[in-house]
Amino acid sequence: MHGPGLISLDPRLVRCENEVNYRECSRRGKTLTTKLPIYKDIVRQMHDFGDPRWIVEERDDAKNVNNWHWTERDASAWSTEKIKNLLLAVKFEGPEGTCEISESREIKGEASANNRKGKLIFFYEWDIKLNWRGKCVGSASNVNGEIHVPNLSEEHSLDDVDVTVTVKEETAEAQALKEMMLRLAPAAVRSKLEEYLRALREECSQGMILPQRKGEPNVAAPKLGRSSSLSPATTGVPAARKSSDLGCPIPTSKINLNENFVASAEDLYSVFTKVERVQAYTRAPAVVEAYRGGSFSLFDGEISGEFIDLQPDTRLVQRWRRKRWPEGHYSTVSIELKQESDSTQLILLQTEVPDSDMEATREGWKRHIFENIKSTFGYGAQLL
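Structure (tokenized):
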């Protein structure tokens, strides 16, 4: 509102028509104000239809109402610190030794949060160079190397972001740690970058979109990307359904399952970690890289992900998704194995499962995995 009885108007709706007396109108900056009943009726109708350009109760100045026009917030300095803090906390451990990211040598790029017509869009492009150091088991000598992430941007999904590892020394110890870092670093670095993108979306968009009506926030699904699927021209499609959306909030639930298998914990553990056994009960090609950061793919790619933690014969943790889920969205699967006198109890917890697919996922575990394991290996029959 500009004053009692005055209505803010979009200039595009104020045109020269016979029934309008323009002597009643005055220009204030980029807005026109009037007391004419005809325009009050127009505004009232637009308000009732929910057009956010006309919802001005929450704005005393009526300027850029509800952030309808393009606005931009620079997130480059914040991003530099966020990426640095996340990556410097990363450590790696394997049978060869231990390593850690010791220094952020260069973080070069830019990031911004943008709003257009009530939709949040994020642009970012980063070239990241890191130093790492480590020691082999039983050695006091440090090995030094570099990690390079040249193409973190909204034009690439995280799976397509390159993470290269090099080593400065040419010793046998250096080569052993390099092999370990090649195995572990890409997944760990991408995981931290995913945390950064989630924080970029959640923290840097605060206050960019004002309420549409009192008590009704007008927040559209955030979008990450300059690519064709997430360009500023995109309208009304939730970002979680787009290929470059990473972690956009969608309704999720968790699955709890308990199943008893007539098998030792060692045998049951191998059913999830040995590719030949996985292929036996799934009856389909599979990929199983049973080490921390290793990938897996079941049912010819219908289920995929990576191993987060492995404790032989007792516990498995996986980053797990179905092909039809919104791209970039993963659940977390935790499987505990408890050895009993003549069987093993399997306790499964799966979090962040999309609500729309929860029942199908639950039934998939029961019918296509648990029952198949029992029928294939005879783990469902009581031993006499």
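Helices lie at 37-48, 76-87, 172-203, 265-273, 275-282, 358-377. Residues 1-40, 42-62, 210-223, 225-248 have pLDDT under 50 and may be disordered.
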